[in-house]
Specification:
Shape: rod-shaped
Radius of gyration: 42 Å
Distance between the termini: 127 Å
Strand content: under 5%
């Protein structure tokens, strides 16, 4: 207030005095505007505003020549202050005041946008933003084409123009970026345009999303058609910058839909490009795309079985980058989708080409192990099945490094099986069995642990499916591990006979049958005799049907040693022997699993007449298996090729 009183006391004609001191005043205002202190800048800005409001349009005409001169100063601070002063003039003047001076204002802003100083360019960008607000499209039409023309020219000017455009994009991307795109993606693409695009997309913000399809389509064509490796590297750099700059959901959805279409394209080149783009996206982006993870699991794993080798080779590193982009705690979220995709890719017995490439299975290991050890029950079950599916579809040499990472967690979870439902236990046991069938050599260090696990699971009281899976896996283990067979046979017989639960005893007998079948040549005579004795006892004891089915399976497991079965056959299987459920089941199992056994023992006619006798029994448990055996004989060689069979059966 004191300064106002002094001014009024000394100055009689304010307008004339202001015009007389205007150059000095403006220079001082420009200097203050470039100061780092907020109070000084605010005072200077308020001064410009007061001049524009109180002294009419003529004052702008007086100020602009001074500012134009200042914009050519060698001092960058003065040039920066000029831009800020222009911003204040445009903000505080009316359309009528500016009308005659818009060309001069645009010249100052345009010159400052390509200034060598980054501070000046930033101030000019602010001025441009304000100009665009008040002048609309004219600000762009009068400024951006000049910058684009400079961008096309070789030399230092193009670099400065690029920096100017970047500053403008920082404040007005939504209106400026669409104008720039046609120039930046013009074909043939140049290295400078690729680098310029890489620089500008980083400040495009949400404006990028609406032009994403156009830009990516141009870039993918340029990548696919370019033969110059240096230029191709620049284009790939632009792709990387663009994918790393996507920051909103609209842009993410556009990208995901575009890439999802490309990975299914008929052109294998486009499928490769899509995979490479997605790999880059996973490496550079920080946006959350967890919603799209299941779709990408399906696409990437499926493409590992693509008919084109180049696609397979691109799918593996893309999957690696994808898994690395997922937080460790979230890996189990994709294990269910991963397993179902593996299951539907290829087929058991035919390897999937991508699974044999280094990096594919290794990327699946952390996902599967996470699902197996930390997932919910469904995730644990599917993770276990995934291991078995991989074993069936991967070459042994490619799978070898991952046997320990898979087998260890399977056994650890299996030993905690009481905490998990039957589905999880069955999946683990079946996968371990698959590993024993396909890669027994690599699982050898785990044989002792596996044997204990399988035997224990054969007595699992929670589920028949668990016990049956354990029995089958124990047989697979015995096939590969012929040591301690007698001890195992003794343990199984003793546990079965001591069990008070007939269902558990039945599963133990089934396990015994599988063990004998795979290791009969290394089983001692005493162990074999113990099995036969147990079989004969079953005819005298009362047992449920599942137990008797197990005994029938044990009978057929002695097919390689038919001489040991002579006593059982003479006493219970031939014509005229007492009818029983077990005798009917033994005949049915023999016809189904060991059809040559009775021919080897030279007792086929008598067995066939025994079937006829059993069919006539009034006890369904005896007659039903006999009828099933009769029907099966009609289509099972060598029975179906034997004329004596028709003679005995009569039809």
């Amino acid at each position: 207030m004191a300064s106002i009183h002094i001014w009024k006391a000394l100055v009689s004609n304010t307008p004339r005095t202001v015009r007389e001191i205007l150059p000095t005043l403006i220079n001082q205002v420009v200097d203050l505007l470039s100061m780092p202190h907020g109070d000084q800048r605010e005072t200077a800005a308020r001064t410009i505003g007061e001049l524009c409001r109180k002294f009419g349009e003529k004052i702008i005409g007086d100020m602009l020549p001074i500012l134009q001169k200042g914009s050519k100063s060698s001092d960058p601070r003065i040039r920066e202050g000029v831009c800020l002063a222009v911003s204040e003039i445009v903000s505080n003047s009316s359309e009528a005041q500016r009308e005659e001076h818009e060309d001069e204002i645009i010249v100052v802003v345009r010159r400052s946008l390509v200034d060598s100083s980054s501070n000046v360019r930033a101030a000019a960008a602010i001025a441009f933003d304000i100009l665009q607000d008040v002048m609309g499209a004219r600000a762009i039409d009068e400024t951006i084409p000049t910058l684009l023309e400079a961008l096309r020219q070789p030399g230092e000017g193009s670099g400065t123009a690029l920096q100017a455009l970047k500053e403008v994009m920082n404040v007005r991307a939504s209106t400026v970026f669409p104008v720039l795109i046609p120039t930046l993606i013009a074909t043939p693409m140049t290295a400078f345009n690729a680098r310029a695009l890489a620089s500008l997309v980083t400040v495009a913000g949400n404006a990028l999303s609406k032009r994403l399809t156009v830009i990516l389509t141009a870039l993918v064509r340029a990548v696919e058609n370019e033969t110059d490796m240096e230029l191709k590297a620049d284009i790939e750099g632009a792709v990387s910058a663009l994918l790393g700059s996507i920051s909103d959901l609209e842009g993410l959805q556009t990208l995901m839909l575009l890439l999802a279409g490309w990975v299914k394209n008929d052109s294998w080149t486009r499928r490769v490009s899509a995979l490479n783009f997605f790999k880059t996206f996973c490496e550079v982006s920080i946006i959350d795309f967890s919603l799209y993870r299941p779709d990408w699991v399906r696409s990437l794993v499926t493409l590992m079985d693509d008919r084109q080798a180049e696609v397979v080779e691109a799918a593996v590193p893309a999957f690696e980058a994808f898994v690395k982009s997922i937080e460790k705690d979230d890996l189990d979220s994709i294990v269910v989708t991963l397993r179902r995709t593996i299951e539907s890719t290829g087929a058991p017995g035919r390897t999937v080409p991508g699974f044999n490439i280094k990096g594919s299975v290794s990327s699946m290991v952390p996902v599967i192990v996470a699902g197996l050890t930390t997932g919910n029950n469904e995730q644990r079950e599917q993770a276990a099945y995934a291991i078995g599916d991989l074993v069936e579809r991967t070459e042994e040499i490619a799978l070898k490094p991952y046997v320990v990472p898979f087998t260890g967690p399977l056994i650890r979870v299996a030993t905690q099986a009481t905490a998990f439902p039957p589905g999880v236990k069955v999946a683990i046991l079946k996968s371990l069995g698959t590993m024993l069938e396909h890669i027994p050599t690599h699982v050898k260090p785990f044989f002792p642990q596996l044997s204990r696990t399988f035997v224990k699971s054969c007595s699992d009281s929670s589920s028949l499916a668990v016990r049956n899976a354990a029995a089958k896996s124990l047989g697979a283990l015995t096939k590969s591990n012929q040591t301690r067979i007698d001890a195992l046979v003794t343990e199984l017989i003793g546990t079965a006979q001591a069990s008070e639960d007939d269902a558990i005893a039945a599963s133990l007998v089934l396990a015994l049958a599988y063990v004998v079948r795979h290791a009969i040549t290394t089983t001692s005579a005493s162990s074999k005799e113990a099995c036969i004795s147990m079989l004969e006892s079953a005819f005298r004891e009362r047992h449920d049907e599942p137990y008797l089915h197990g005994m029938a399976t044990l009978f057929t497991s002695f097919e390689p040693s038919p001489e040991l079965l002579q006593g059982v056959v003479r006493s219970h299987i031939l014509q005229g022997t007492p009818p029983s459920v077990l005798s009917s089941l033994i005949i049915l199992h023999a016809v189904e699993d060991a059809p040559k056994l009775f021919y080897t023992m030279n007792c086929v006619p008598s067995v066939l007449r025994k079937i006829v006798e059993s069919i006539g029994e009034s006890v369904p448990a005896i007659s039903r298996p006999a009828r099933e055996a009769k029907e099966l004989i009609r289509t099972t060689p060598p029975f179906c090729d034997d004329d004596s069979v028709l003679a005995i059966f009569g039809t």
